[in-house]
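Homework-ish question, so no full write-ups if that breaks the rules, but can someone show me the predicted structure for this set?
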Amino acid sequence: MSAGTYTPRPGGAPLGRMITAQTALETRMLLRNGEQLLLTVIIPTLLLVLFSAVDIVDTGAGESVDFLTPGILALAVMSTAFTGQAIATGFERRYGVLKRLGASPLPRWALMTAKTLAVLVTEVLQVVLLTVIAFALGWSPQGNPFAVLLLLVLGTAAFSGLGLLMAGTLKAEATLAAANLVFLLLLVGGGVIVPLDKFPDAVQSVLGLLPIAALSDGLREVLQHGASMPWGDLGILAVWAVLGLGAAARFFRWE
Amino acid sequence: MKSESAVEVRGLVKRYGRKTAVDGLDLCVRTGAVTAVLGPNGAGKTTTVEICEGYRRPDAGTVRVLGLDPVADAAKLRPRIGVMLQSGGVYSGARADEMLRHMAKLHAHPLDVDALIERLGLGSCGRTSYRRLSGGQQQRLALAMAVVGRPELVFLDEPTAGLDPQARRSTWDLVRELRADGVSTVLTTHFMDEAEELADDVAVIDAGKVIAQGSPEALCRGGAENTLRFTGRPGLDIGSLLKALPDGTEAAEILPGAYRIGGDVNPELLATVTSWCAQHGVMPSGISVERHTLEDVFLELTGKELRA
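A: Not a homework solution, just the prediction itself:
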């Protein structure tokens, strides 16, 4: 390189370009990671196919795919917005990625915006894939698509807040362990593939307040039973979103 | 307004709990110069640099970087500086070229990424992800990320730690090129040779304070005196030798036949010693002049070894 190559000419790129670039990079990192793909694509797909084909769990009246698909969509949202985001962000914090980007022209809010957009892009890919598979398995959805969209967005907000809270406060290894454990517990106890009414009444009312239960129940109300707007579930998700994002904003540590 | 100093630190104090990491530190970094912050591990180098980068708030004192407050004016300052952290800073799944291209996209007028990859020998990283790169490759990538945005001022935290000699030279060359093109550089190091080779100014830090600052030459001249050694026959008349030497010079027979003269060792002094030997029929052998290094300066100022 010749003389004058490094002559200072500083300046940040336009915000839109920075956010686009950061979103593209975050999305590539999510999709490139094998463990993440297992969590976000392979497990939901396998569960959908397996439990639709084989009558292991009693899913009540009607086609099992009509019961399962809303639950699996809820699981997909949780796997990306909560588990995947928590683990990835936890390790980015541990390895100084967040710190290094903090000294770049990219503002912190723009970094968080890009992370959210990357989660949404991944979710779109998940929803498309799972919807195609569900249709192939004979799924016949009902209801208001706008209500479905609102549930998915609020669910994403709720799970993102909780995931970032965990990533920004715990050690990376603790986040890895805890996020996987929570994923497993909520998979079983959150109405994803096992209907909540299989649990005792007292347990049921507590489990019903979990974000995963609210999301899968809300999606099921709309997609399986044709409800117009499941206000109760939307309310639960909104409360989780406010609490989770508020706590994450308050307690998140960048290093 | 163009400021005379790229960095101006006065009375900086930073405490972590009960431990005082930086204890009333003053530092001035001239625009366009290379300033080395030299000191042993734990002296407060990284804390000082990270306060300048806006990562931490000082407990006391004032810090101005390019005329700005690193915390309050962070949004204005960050596009103008380049930062190389001591370690990490890259997505473990990202490739070297991918991360560098990304950093370039965050800047308005970045360097040519391909040329920079070539310049720093990062082309051989190919499609390898960051976590599988060698330590040296990771270091060079971090350096590339610090300069790709064409900053006015770069902070390099231990830029050559863990590098092989060849990669070390190449990093030094890049710092010299930055200087030639008018970029101000602050680098922390615990290698004296690095400070001596690269720096226009050296700030020697110990226990959170700057204990000496100046050009490497001035520091070596100022702090410690130099030494002339020779061997001859045992029992020479030291008193007679001292009379021939300028005031303030010391002379001693440290072992039978081994003589040491301490003071301002210059060509005249050397000539005086050899002519005194000639007058006394002494053939001095093994004459050596030891120039003091920054390491000696450090040892003298602190009583500690720099590398310890």
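Now go work out the reasoning yourself. Hint: Chain B has eleven helices and 13 strands.
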